[in-house]
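Repro:
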Amino acid sequence: MHTVLATNSSGATVPPAALARLSVSRTHAAYLAAIVYLALAPASYLCYPGTYSPLRNWLSDLGNSLTNTKRAVFYNAGCTMASLLLIVFYLSMSVWRTGDKVLGRLLAVAQISGVFSSLALILSAVINIGRNYVVLLAVNARLLEEAESSTPAQAGAPK
């Protein structure tokens, strides 16, 4: 029987027993992230003022401190904790590196995009649209500047 060995980030060979232990912790981080989010989001939902509907509201409305004054902290804490656990999960995927360049690049893309999306989820909890209008206006102004500067001017039209 052929045993598949992997290498860690420093190039050392990782024995199968170590892979099994890391797989368990990686799996636990992913499961725990889902459990944390699914435990805290309903706590925020139960005290949402008025009626909440996924067809009319965004999920982030549960974390808006202006509309959900009583329990927004639960949703924001759930997003932050779940994101931190997901970052652990994505970073621990490096045990799957086998030395194949193509698969290594695909794994790197998966890890980078996973960590980036986890950080975006943290930012959606920290930068709450209900509290930070200045940040929202600054981001929108910068995006408009970028859009205007990247749009080619039409011939003869004033810019």
